[in-house]
Specification:
Elements: H1 2-26, H2 48-66, H3 68-73, H4 102-111, H5 116-120, E1 123-124, H6 129-136, H7 138-177, H8 182-209, H9 212-265, H10 271-306, E2 314-315, H11 323-327, H12 331-341, H13 343-350, H14 356-413, H15 419-454
Helix pairs in contact: 1-8, 2-7, 2-8, 4-6, 6-7, 6-9, 7-8, 7-9, 9-10, 9-15, 12-14, 13-14, 14-15
């Protein structure tokens, strides 16, 4: 259908330009002929009310050209559609139309395999973060609404200008066929030119709004927030693991303090031993409370980032960086991509310079920006390599601790060890588990930061 519309526009070009030339011959004070595509349609007889509206449109054209925002909302424009109630010819946006659900469609495309119910529940998965940011973060939502509103305003104004220009040409045709006044015919045709020029400007604005660079700019705004949310999610996950480990440590020291009280009563330890056990317990409880407060604060901050309420949210599992993801990294290719995507490099390249000294300085600034982007890629690549080794070491340590803990559980169940010894073993196991998850989070965060670098997100 889009190709058919374009065909109609192209076929109408010659006829429209001919009308414009006629208008110029009638009155040389008129605007120059423009490449406007407004004909190719059956002309219907239009009553006096339409004629009045069309004249009003023409008189308002200069205002509309200078004020795009008002153009779309001016009452005169709301009545410029043709009698057939068909849409204006040649939609300015060729890759999609604006609908009330456009924002929801964007969210759906970003949420991947996550359902609407999953995105709305209290469990925050790492993979959901971009979709949640797009639908709940104030900055991201505001940027999207601003874009959609601007797009709608310009599209409405564009359609109004095209429709109004067509009306002017219809009137000129009717008067010409009826042998009407040449001056009035020329006025209609010049009005059509004015409206068509406004339509062209709106179309340029729409093309710019819908360009790849515009989309990239909007995405970078969102991606900055997503990157922050990923870091915050990782921080929350680490703190939650630390809370779990701290709770077991406090439980272990509680058991030790209880045992010392019994031993003191039986004359098996001194008061100094009991005081030391109680001191250890107090320190563990203080550490637990402090870590819990930090975890709750971090969780509240994450909730704010995602537009969620309160601290009732929980976090899903850590998405481990796979061997496939690591193997996909190619330092030479990624370094070149990072240089191209770097905002500093782009800024330096866009700058202008006059004179030899200024051009030399500009060239130096470009080289420095490219060198910095290249060095950053090298550093991040090396960091990922180091964190990958740390993750492997933490995984080996955790697997060993898991075996030891399994043996400790068997001993405790058989009565071979007391509860305090069992709790100590459990705390040690949980500590190794927390260290592994910290290593996983650090690697995941570094890997994603590397991916953001390739997209130009600092």
């Amino acid at each position: 259908m889009m190709r058919n519309l374009k065909g109609k526009w192209m076929n109408a070009e010659a006829g429209t330009e001919q009308k414009m030339r006629k208008g110029q011959e009638r009155d040389r004070s008129g605007a120059s002929a423009l490449d406007v595509h407004l004909d190719g349609y059956n002309v219907k007889r239009i009553g006096k009310s339409r004629l009045t509206r069309s004249i009003g449109i023409a008189l308002a054209a200069c205002i509309l050209v200078s004020s795009p925002a008002q153009a779309a909302k001016t009452p005169l424009i709301s009545g410029t559609e043709s009698d057939s109630d068909s849409e204006a010819d040649g939609p300015a946006l060729e890759d999609g139309t604006i609908t009330e659900n456009s924002a929801d469609n964007t969210i759906a495309s970003q949420s991947g395999s996550y359902t609407e119910e999953q995105l709305a529940d209290s469990v925050i998965e790492y993979g959901e973060l971009e979709a949640l940011v797009r639908r709940g973060n104030g900055t991201a939502v505001s940027a999207d609404y601003s874009y959609q509103d601007s797009l709608a305003v310009h599209q409405e104004a564009y359609d109004a200008m095209i429709s109004g220009a067509r009306d002017m040409n219809y009137k000129a045709d009717e008067l010409e066929d009826a042998g009407g006044d040449e001056a009035l015919i020329g006025t209609y045709e010049r009005n059509a030119q004015t409206l068509s020029m406004a339509a062209k400007q709106y179309k340029k604005s729409l093309t710019s709004l819908n360009s790849a660079s515009s989309r990239a700019s909007r995405n970078r705004t969102v991606w900055q927030v997503v990157k922050t949310a990923q870091i915050q999610w990782g921080t929350c996950r680490q703190l939650q693991d630390e809370v779990e480990a701290a709770a077991k440590t406090a439980e272990n020291y509680q058991a030790q303090a209880d045992r010392k009280e019994r031993e003191l009563a039986a004359g098996l330890c001194t008061e100094t031993d009991l005081l030391q056990a109680q001191k250890n317990l107090l320190s563990a409880q203080t550490a637990l409370q402090s870590t819990t407060d930090q975890a709750n604060k971090a969780l509240r901050q994450l909730a704010i980032l995602l537009g969620k309420s309160g601290t009732s949210i929980t976090l899903g599992e850590i998405p481990a960086v796979s061997a496939t993801e690591l193997a996909s990294m190619n330092l030479d290719a990624d370094r070149a991509a990072a240089v191209v995507a770097s905002s500093s490099v782009k800024s330096a390249r866009r700058s202008s310079a006059t004179g030899d000294a200024a051009r030399k300085l500009r060239h130096q600034q470009i080289e420095e920006a490219e060198s910095a982007a290249s060095a950053s890629a090298d550093e991040q690549y090396a960091e990922i390599a180091a964190l990958s080794l740390e993750r492997d070491a933490a995984q080996a340590a955790y697997q060993s601790a898991e075996k030891t803990y399994s043996a400790t559980q068997i001993k405790y169940q058989s009565g071979a060890i007391n509860k305090a010894t069992y709790l100590q073993g459990e705390a040690s196991y949980l500590q190794k588990k927390a260290e592994l998850e910290t290593a996983e989070i650090s690697l995941r965060t570094a890997y994603d930061a590397y991916e953001w670098m390739l997209k130009g997100v600092a």
